[in-house]
């Protein structure tokens, strides 16, 4: 799932603990072209405040109107199904492109214990399946895997939730600051490791969390998993290669290092001399980033994050840097 939807659940938990009534909407089916994919969420508070999104905006407006005009009855069923865009006219009314159709669950959130447990398990970097019984509103949480996907059979909604994507930056220099800012906008959790205390000045807590220790220790201490990217940006092989030796043998979905094509080849040779297997070395991205003619730190950061997001989303890389480019 999109980790931004975890923010919806955090608000649901906060609102319910404050004693406010909450209705949770989840996209369960789409036909044609739909603004949001199945699994997208929106929470509606009793006073009309919303967080999250299930469409481009018009459906959200109607959900709020349902609250204010009494279509959401306080004594109604715990869960019901709502469909938007059955006709071309209705699709146009609600801003659904190309005659798209959107089906939602409208779920009254009672005891928020399941919300707290789900969030805690995601924070522990677990992948969790939430099964919602449409008839009773009962919620059951179960372990899931990265191969699991949302399923809906008219009786049960089984949605998959996972931890935020993470980016570990080795080095706290100028380029890392640009990368961290872009990564946060893309909803990555940003971690930084740099044993050089001279580079720590000026980093604010909201820009990322520092991980203590040497780079290889940091890779181990964060319990690197399939939702973690690691990039070495110090330009100092004593630090970068230390991180890479551990990162390339980890489960990280992306491992990269700053450097030109020539320097990247020298790095691969050095890693081989240090005992790293050819299979592990083949996982290294270097030069980092997609080919956009990048030169400035901000452009290099954009190039890097474009490559990371493409790999995260399973998109084939067709725009790698040519032989003469790279930093």
Tell me about this structure.
The protein starts with a helix and ends in a 15-residue tail after the last helix. The chain has 2 domains: 4-161, no CATH class; 166-312, Rossmann fold (3-Layer(aba) Sandwich), CATH 3.40.50. The chain has helices at residues 4-17, 58-68, 88-93, 113-123, 174-185, 215-221, 237-247, 261-273, 278-281, 297-312; strands at residues 22-31, 41-45, 50-52, 79-84, 101-108, 128-133, 139-143, 151-152, 156-161, 166-170, 189-193, 209-210, 228-232, 254-257, 284-285. It has 327 residues and is α/β, with parallel strands linked by helices. Strands 12-11-10-13-14-15 form a 6-stranded parallel beta sheet, sandwiched between helices. The protein has 10 helices and 15 strands. Strand 10 (166-170), helix 5 (174-185) and strand 11 (189-193) form a beta-alpha-beta unit. It is elongated and about 70 Å long.
How many β-strand runs?
15
Which residue ranges are poorly predicted, with pLDDT under 50 across at least 5 consecutive positions? 323-327
* Assembly of the depicted chains: single chain
Helix content: 25-40%
Number of helices: 10
- Structural class computed from helices and strand pairing: alpha/beta
- As a whole number of angstroms, the C-alpha radius of gyration is 23 Å
Number of domains: 2
Q: Give the mean pLDDT.
A: 88
SSE string: HEEEHEHEHEEEEEHEEHEHEHHEH
Ends: how far apart?
34 Å
Q: What labels describe this entry?
A:
elongated; 327 residues; alpha/beta
